[in-house]
Amino acid sequence: MVRYVTVLSTEIPDSWKYAGDGWGSSLHRICSRTGSFPPALAHYFVKRYSRRGEVVLDPFSGKGTLPLEACLNERIGIGNDLAPEAYVITRAKVNPVTLEEVKEWISRTKERWRPESYDVDEVSDDVRTFFSKYTLRQILAIRDLLMDDDSDLANFIKAAMCGILHGPTRIHLSVPCSHAFSMSPKYMRRFIKKNGLRKPKREVLKCLLSKVERVLRNGLPRVRGVATMKDARRLPLEDGSVRLIVTSPPYFNMQTYAWDNWLRLWFLGYDYLEVKNKLFQSESRQKFGSFMQECLKEMYRVLKDDSACFVVVGDVKLNGYYVNMAEMIAPIAESVGFTVARLISDSIPRSNKHLMYIKEEDGVSRERILELHKGNPVQNDEPVAWARATVEVPA
Ligand SMILES: C[S@@+](CC[C@H](N)C(=O)[O-])C[C@H]1O[C@@H](n2cnc3c(N)ncnc32)[C@H](O)[C@@H]1O
After folding, report:
1. Same domain for 85 and 231?
2. pLDDT range class, residue 314, cuts 50, 70, 90
3. What is the pTM of this model?
């Protein structure tokens, strides 16, 4: 039974599907993280459903794609996420610092750090699996310098360090592995042995500078935003203060955020198990339904009248059957006051999923975007970045 109007994302004129591969500011690439939506999708909705100076929110901001895109387009981007590494990355994007500030920090660090004084044997075997002793001593020294510093500069460096901590290239600090998620140490130990891999000796401050130079290549957003680390069921925002929400909640049956980031969480001084217990995670439809109801009620509360809310969800496989999360959430959204305007169906290329360890048949193959309205939102005609110019054909 299809109750809702459904359109394909490719049928929307100038939708994000028409942006080129890798579209978006270099700042988006400070650190990868699983489960994110593309910058072009965020750009499209920001341009169409909000105006300059208005507040745009993602209550599950992950790596902060939506709030950054909002700030780049002169809106006030707010990103909230309960995961510490997501908060650090989101904050780095909405409150970035300049290359000069990072260079100064690196010069000061060279004068005061003492990596040789660190005993790497005090670090867990799991962490040591990824790094040479030479590199790990430097990581420990940087970690200590940043640990109790809550400035935007220290936060930006933490995010950039998370971005180079593990991965396959010469600026990554680890043995070659995935950059999108922290791999299992058990798997890595077998992989290293089987392939005879060597843990590289890196000059960490050089790698850090190289990363920051790349990330800031396209400049900084003109508007600063806000990052918070709260439960999405209790947002620290006033009633009716937000013009647009674009978000993607934790996927039913697919929540691995804490484990996917265990090494970054270690670097930031957290235990992934403690973080896992805080984040929403359940395979029960009933618990997921109640969680979504509380979250949607909160989103409805903070939205202004005549505003839109876009919720990106997938079709998830549970016990051999596909669960259409959009159809599951739509009636809940209606129960808290939203009107379901339409469902936008969006296929995701496997290369974008970063879920290499999930079997093809168990992953998310199709995403659907629920377009929810509070009142009657009006679309803007502000052009999106990749829009084709209309050619006037003489009569
Ligand atoms: C699908 S991801 C969001 C991805 C994001 N849109 C992006 O582009 O990176 C869902 C997020 O929900 C966060 N999360 C889980 N439980 C939460 C809660 N109770 N409150 C706030 N955030 C939560 C997870 O840390 C995860 O980042």
Report:
1. yes
2. confident
3. 0.94
